[in-house]
Amino acid sequence: MSEVVIRKVQGHQQMDDFIRVVYGIYQHCPQFVPDLESDVRMLFDRKKNPGLEFSDVQAFVAYQNDQPVGRIVGIVNYKANKKWNAQNVRFSMIEFIDDLTVSKALLDAVAAWGKSKGMDRMQGPLGITDFDKEGMLVEDFDMMGSMNTIYNPDYYPRHMEAWGMQKETDWLQVRIDIPKEIPARYSRVAQYAREQIGLRVKKLTNRDILRGGYAEKVFDLLNQSYAPIFGFSELSKAQADSFVGKYLYLIDKQLIPVIVNEQEEVVGAAITMGCLSQAMQKANGRLWPTGWYHLLRALKWKREDHAEMLLIAVRPDYQGLGVNAMFFDDLIPIYNKYGFKWAETGPQLEDNVRELSQWKPLHPQFVKRRRCYKKYI
After folding, report:
1. What is the model's pTM?
2. In Å, what is the CA distance from 368 to each residue of 135, 194, 353?
3. Are the beta carbons of 129 and 233 closer than 8 angstroms?
4. Long-range contact list for 20-23, CB < 8 A, 24+ apart?
5. Were 156 and a residue from 152, 179, 238, 343 both cysteine, which residue would form a disulfide, CB within 3.0 to 4.6 Å?
6. What SS3 class is residue 97?
7. Does the pLDDT value for residue 355 go beyond 90?
């Protein structure tokens, strides 16, 4: 068995190896959706990733016979550790061939790096923020991945357990068929919210976002509604601006219903978009020379057959008052108009019963269980 060598990513060659090691691991995997290489590089750029203002990160690559065979990132999010009174080092973006010596060497590297920073516990896969990809897939490996979630081979969880990691929490994704008509329960509750509580749906324009302050209002809402969620740390204004700059012109605003009250306060927001999995596969990690065309085509001209419901947020004092029903009441007709046959949420914590129960009228499937692991180091 060849010796495993772990190298810190400190230059262009190691970063190229870090990015491209996935192509060997997933070369025969039709479910894998690659990240854009430019997005991966941006994660480590202090000028472009405001999350690095309060986090330390270190990427590592594993080599056998001078060939890259795995990768991992260590993250210390000081803001999250302060909030949760913890000394956690997170691991992220882990990939490896089916060789226990490779996965052990990668995990050992992050554990040693974390201990050098004063950390005593390791957890992951987690990113810097709750909106980064998180959770290792432990079921439904035959289902297509997506641009906003982790896909991994079925042997990965076995390697985590072999290293002594245990479950910390699980997420589930909700998959629904789009009904032709709005379920009566949603219509009734949405009408009540409009007439008795004074709520309404607002579709944002670029002007609203750039000049009307609505980007800041939506991200304030996210910070309020997600505050108690596992692992969450408050998004800064710089992070909010970064998200807006990255996604503003990508997402169809008709697919982002924002709920406002009579005082024009934002009390709910749903961020959804058409699926880009097949387009991302065709782009194969690069916008140029033709990747941009595949993405634009899927967004504007030939949509894929389902929608990605990236996140739903409701201000705590408006939860249970019909905001979620207003999202469905607004989106179902639009999804039908766009030809979407089904929709899938992002990962939702398995113990968030209130969040998961809202889908009941749509006869949901709970799929793609994914796991955050933990271990004291």
Report:
1. 0.94
2. 10, 35, 17
3. yes
4. 20/68, 21/61, 21/68, 21/69, 21/70, 21/71, 21/95, 22/71, 22/95, 23/285
5. 152
6. coil
7. no
